[in-house]
Structures are given as C-alpha cells and as structure tokens.
Write a structure and sequence with these properties.
homodimer, alpha/beta, Arc Repressor Mutant, subunit A, D-Maltodextrin-Binding Protein, domain 2, 3 domains, 7-stranded mixed sheet, two-stranded antiparallel sheet, 48% helix, rod-shaped, DNA-binding
Chain lengths: 301, 301
DNA sequence: AAGTTTACATCAAATAAAATTATCTAGATT
DNA sequence: AATCTAGATAATTTTATTTGATGTAAACTT
C-alpha cells in the first residue's frame, strides 16, 4: 500500500475503468491491473467489481476510496506547503543580537525588511554574545549579529558592518572644535569606564595594550553598566568615554555629542553575522542575510 | 515521495539519527541515506541537518514531518477501518424484498439478526420483483429476497424457503373440518381474486392452466389490491382465496383462518435469495445470508 | 596530539519491483 | 457465429531498492 497504488486505485474508481485509468495516468492497462491486484491481495478482499461495461468499487473499495482521497489530498497539501515555504518569503524568523546590534543595528534593519516582506514575522532576542551563540548552535536562533569573533568549530561568521569606536565628548567640551585627539591626552580627563564583561570595554583595553599604553592610567571616575548610562554620563559632564559611533549616531546627528578619532589606537572592530556551520539556513533567513548585506553595501560602499 | 520514504523520514526525525532509524525499521543505514537523499532531491532542499552527534530537521523538514505524521496516521486509520469492516460485522446493509418477503419473511429475520449483530443497521426496501432486481444490478440493494426465478445473466439466486400456497377459509366455513379440497370444488365458491400484476395471482392462474383447468370458471366476486385486503375479505365472508401460508401463518396460529391444500394444483413455489452475479458481497451481506440459511435450516429440517 | 569511535556518504553488485508488449479469456454486441 | 470490449496473464525489459564494503569527517579518548 503506497501512494502510487492509491493514486492508481482512485483513478480506476473515478474512471470506472482499468483501461481508461491507465490512459489517464500514462500507464499500460496490465500495470493498473497488477497494482489493483496487489492492493486486493494486501487487504485480502475485492476492492473493485469488474462489471463488464464498467467497474465500480465494492463496499470495502468505497471505504478505501474515501481514505485514499483524503491521503492524496494531504500529500498535495504537504507539497504545496513546502513549496510555499521554499518559494515565498513567509513565516517566522528568530534573530539574536548582542548588546549593540540588538539596540542599534538590528532595529534599523527590521523596519525596511518587514516592509519588503510583510508576511515574515520577526522576533529579536537580545543577550550576551555567548547566549546568542549557544542558541544558534541549538537551532533556536537562526541568525545572530554579534560584535566578537567566535572561536567555535560549529559557528561561521561574516563581517556585516564596521564599528568605529571614537572618543565621545559633549559639544561644550574644550576639544569640541578639534578633529582628533591623541591617546596620551585621554589620561588627563575623567573617563567613564564600563563593567568588566562589556565587549566595548574589552575592546578599549585591548587596543590600548596593543598600542603600548597602560589602561590603568585612565582616570576612571565611574563605571557604568550599559551604553545608555555612559551617554547620559557624558551629556551630564561626568566624564568622557570611548563608544561605538553606531550607538551614538543619533546624538551626533542631533549635535548633542561629538565623536573624535583617537590617534594611536586601533579602535575598529566589526559586527558579524553569526550562523551555525551545520544547520541549514531557511529561505527566510537567507533573504534576511541578503537584505543585511545589501543594506550595508548600499550605505557604505 | 511515497509512504515508505515518509515513514523512513519520520523515523529519522524521531530517532534523531539515520543509523538508529535504520535499525528501528530493519534497514541498512545506506538505504535510509538514499531515501532521505531522494526526498531532498525531490523537494530541492535540505530536510535534515546532520549535526554530527544527532540529526535534526530543518525548517522545511519540520513542515514535512508534520504532514508526514498526518499522512501516515491517515494511512493507519484507513487500514484499520478496512480491517474493521472486513472483520467486524458492523455497518449498513440494504435488503430488498418483493411483496410477501418484505411483508412476512424479512421482518421475521431482521429481529434476531439485529440481536446477534447489533452494530449492523439494516434497511429494508419493498418493491416489485423487477424493481428489486434492477436495484440489485445497480449495486444499490445488496441482497434481495423475491418469489420468482429471474432470467437474467447478471443475477444469481438460491432457494431460501418454500412457499406453500393453500386455500384459505374462515373457521366458520363449511370446509373447516376437512383436510383438503379438490380443485374442481373451488369453482362452486365465491373466490377473491388479485390484481393482474400480482405474483400470487400469476402463480394461481399458471398452476390451474398447468393442471388443465380454466381459471375463468372461478366465481371471482371481487379483486383485491393486496394480501391484507384478501385476508380481511375472507374473515368477513366475502369469499375464499388461495394465499401463501407464510402470509397467513399468524391468522392460522390464532385460529382465525384455516389453510387447506388444494388437490390437483401445484401450488408450491419458492422464495429466492437474489444477488448480483458480479458484484462482491460485503462481509455483512455474507453474514446475513448465512443467517437466513441457518434460520430456515434449523426451522424446517 | 594521535588513535578511536560515531555517524553519515558513496559505490558496485545483487535483488526485487514495476512497466511493457503480446497474448488470452469472458462477456457483450452485431 | 463473428466481432468488440474490458480485463487477466505471461514473459521480458527496465527501473528501483537494498545491501555490504568502504570512505570521510567530526567528536571523543587517553
């Protein structure tokens, strides 16, 4: 009993004839006979009464016919559901982002993506990089955008967008008219630090060490738990700090803050599209990644 | 895409492994691999992510899995529905009877049959013999019981029960103490006739002609349209008549009427179980016929 | 870090199943 | 009786399925 035999059986019932059924599905008449015989042997009962002029189902055949129609119909629906899924950009997409991406990068992308593919429902999960990576490996989150390179053989990454970290100062600061500052100058000013686990803070420390400076020389008047707090601290003249320009773009645009490159420090990092190496990307996920690349390709090249 | 492949696919999803699935359904691992490959080629997409330790469905695979479960479940339900139908005596049975059978024979059978097989719902269609035969050939009525031999190559019949036609008289009749009457004596009494189309009337005329008597000699005071009317006529002394003993058994048992054999006339006929020669009898129909034969076998042998 | 195990893919060969052509049979139809 | 029609049957070719042996890559072991 397989779908092919059921299909043949249904065709015989509907054509009321073995030979007409065989023509309808491009088979020879003996092939139809043998498949029907196989079904009848399987169920150990007659399914079709060969009446001479026409062929009609027996009572048992009538029962099988009803079920066969349902089964074949379900098969067709399965096929079209899969083809819809593969063809149309429609369904659910779960994206994960670490702090900066979930706050500043992904929200900017979701708007126009949703406009382009209104039938996709997106969910954005925020968490620290390791949480996101763990969920990607589990297959729960399909796509991650994080600010660190992951050293895990199950993960593959691609650069999405450059993050330029700069010194952020209030417009009223004495350096507001300057085009850049030197790293050494930072040690004279009150500096707002981040908590130890912060990716941003790690980047700052690493770039100073790489350049031969001792970060301990910074006058860290206060340590803040997140980017928003740091920005508030700068606006309120608590001190200055180094931040992702992505995170303060709005404040720079509205002339509330100014960003200055720090000479002597390699403060560039990247945000990476982060995927499971082994799991298959859904068509929706593929579309989202294409969209992200196009978005930044257009804006920055 | 056939049921076998879906079954294998479901097994892989549920075992989270190609090799475990292969053991679960007694196949080699390469067989499972090749069937999965075939499905993936058919849908032109990956259905399972081979993650190393375990295997999990992709989003497309998840969709197919849901449908596969439904399809296989429906297949199982179809099988058990058919096996129930073939094994258990359960369902519908449409029986057709001509006048005497539908009035006196079949109702007697239905009672005990229903008691024995309470899950069978019986419908009894009454009609003249030709109507019944027509419906049997169409497959609408499965079993007929009629009082005539049918000369049709599409019909097969089997004797079910003998019908002894006898002269029926009131208990107050002058012949009430006699054991039989001679055919010639009938011509002296008022006789209740039946309408021309009646099988009973045809049988009476034929038996008289066969015996060399002219039925026109009967003093037919009235012609009745059905058996009940004739019985009422006899009870009310309108006249006497020849009837199936089957039809008046109750009145004989309750001593309201008496039946006398008519010497010189061959008034025996049979009621026949009547079936389509080509159509397959349902298990319920088979059970009913067995029951009928046993019923009369026990009562008359 | 090299060896071992696990899990699946690949290939060639054997086996099984499906399909075809040609032929046959039983009822209808002429 | 001859012809036609619908399906059954048989022998053959074609196509699928299954398997055992082997390969590969990643994950565990020690």
């Amino acid at each position: 009993m397989d779908l092919w035999q059921l299909h043949i059986f249904v065709s015989v019932v509907e054509n009321k004839s073995f030979s007409k059924a065989s023509q309808a599905i491009n088979l020879s008449q003996p092939t139809v006979s043998s498949h029907i015989k196989e079904l009848e042997d399987y169920f150990k009962c007659r399914l079709l009464d060969r009446l001479g002029k026409i062929t009609e189902p027996t009572k048992a055949g009538e029962i099988l016919y009803q079920y066969s129609k349902k089964i074949l119909n379900l098969r067709d629906r399965a096929e079209s559901a899969l083809h819809d899924f593969l063809g149309k950009t429609k369904g659910d997409l779960l994206i994960g982002g670490s702090t900066i991406p979930s706050g500043y990068i992904i929200p900017k992308l979701i708007g126009p993506f949703s406009k382009k593919f209104p039938e996709v429902s997106i969910e954005l999960a925020a968490g620290d990089t390791m949480q996101i990576v763990r969920e990607i490996k589990k297959g729960k989150i399909e796509i991650g955008i994080v600010g660190a390179k992951i050293d895990d053989p199950g993960i593959k990454q691609e650069k999405l967008v450059a993050d330029e970290m700069k010194l952020i100062i209030p417009l009223s600061h004495k350096w507001a008219k300057r085009a850049s500052v030197d790293c050494l100058e930072l040690f004279k000013e009150s500096f707002i630090a981040r908590e130890k686990g912060s990716g941003t803070w790690k980047s700052i420390l690493k770039s100073m060490e790489d350049a031969g400076f001792d970060p301990k020389g910074l006058k860290t008047c206060v340590t803040m738990g997140n980017t928003i707090s740091v920005i508030q601290g700068i606006l309120n003249h608590v001190g200055i700090s180094i931040l992702s320009t992505i995170a303060v773009q709005d404040d720079i645009d509205t002339k509330r803050l100014k960003a200055l490159p720090v000479k002597g420090l390699a403060l560039d990092r990247f945000f990476y599209i982060t995927l499971s190496k082994k799991r298959t990307l859904s068509p929706i996920g593929k579309k989202f990644i294409d969209f992200c690349k196009a978005y930044y390709g257009l804006n920055f090249v």
